[in-house]
Q: What sequence folds into this?
């Protein structure tokens, strides 16, 4: 039976009738308004979060996270000129009705750092959070910027964001973002390729409730000579990353543009992802732009 507040006060008034440990437990409980379970009756239930983290997939690599009234975007894209007709994804509006606003960007490439989307998402009071290499240029463009060195947690109201290593296909600076809040933890990996930090990230921060991972295995022709090497995670590599990270759910991003002479995706990326995921028993949710995650496998 859980004692009432009056019973707890009676116990505090008669400390000689109880042990020192029980007396201190009761005092601490009253000081914070907690519910006290007497010794021997089992452990208290895990506190229930007042707000639950929700996640919505946006166009291309973009993700919107909601926690209470606050909104955090990662790599939002709204400018139709970035991909033009090659991108078939619908461009999801950056509407925010209330609360604080934050944007994280993984790197400076225009399909991940879209100034049009960032300005819409932040409004007049929001904060752009990015790695130091990006922060200088972002501040020069008039954004309110907060710099985030690797592995340094940044508190954004009830969100906690941490930049961790990633590897860019051009060798430009890039990070992945770990965001936690509302009892969940996710990782967003921009358009990284395979690298050696997956194990360290998994050990230090995993497991993850969801991993947003690129899957199109892009090969670039813009830089000469052409390497013919995948400069973004392939579907099979994304599954391997999910395994190493300890991700309970893999949500694919960064795929679905029409091929050109200078940009080639892995054909049938979704089918390859699902086949590899089944072999390695990785759960996948194929969220479409505009859809909110169910946090359940939908393959």
A:
């Amino acid at each position: 039976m859980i004692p009432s507040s009056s019973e707890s006060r009676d116990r505090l008034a008669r400390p000689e009738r109880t042990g020192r440990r029980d007396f201190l437990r009761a005092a601490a409980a009253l000081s914070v308004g907690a519910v006290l379970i007497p010794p021997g009756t089992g452990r208290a239930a895990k506190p229930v979060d007042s707000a639950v983290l929700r996640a919505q997939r946006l166009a291309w690599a973009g993700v919107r996270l909601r926690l209470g009234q606050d909104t955090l975007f990662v790599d939002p894209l709204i400018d139709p000129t970035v991909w033009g007709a090659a991108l078939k994804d619908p461009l999801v509006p950056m509407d925010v009705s209330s609360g604080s606003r934050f944007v994280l960007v993984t790197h400076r490439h225009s399909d991940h750092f879209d100034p049009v989307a960032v300005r819409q998402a932040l409004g007049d009071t929001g904060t752009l959070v990015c790695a130091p290499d990006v922060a200088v240029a972002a501040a020069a463009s008039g954004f309110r910027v907060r710099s985030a060195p690797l592995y340094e947690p940044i508190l954004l109201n009830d969100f906690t964001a941490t930049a961790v290593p990633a590897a860019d296909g051009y060798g430009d600076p890039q990070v992945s973002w770990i965001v936690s809040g509302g009892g969940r933890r996710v990782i967003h990996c921009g358009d990284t390729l395979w690298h050696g930090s997956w194990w360290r990230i998994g050990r230090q921060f995993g497991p993850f409730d969801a991993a947003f991972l690129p899957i199109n295995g892009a090969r670039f022709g813009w830089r000469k000579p052409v390497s013919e090497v995948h400069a973004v995670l392939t579907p099979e590599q994304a599954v391997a990353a999910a395994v190493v990270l300890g991700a309970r759910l893999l949500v694919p991003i960064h795929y679905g543009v029409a091929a050109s002479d200078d940009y080639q995706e892995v054909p049938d990326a979704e089918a390859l992802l699902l086949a590899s995921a089944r072999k390695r028993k990785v759960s996948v949710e194929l969220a479409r732009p505009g859809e909110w995650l169910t946090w359940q496998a939908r393959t």
Summary: Residues 216 and 255 are 5 Å apart (CA to CA). The helical segments are 5-13, 20-32, 115-122, 132-140, 198-205, 235-245, 269-280. The chain is about 25% helix and 20% strand. The longest strand covers residues 159-165.
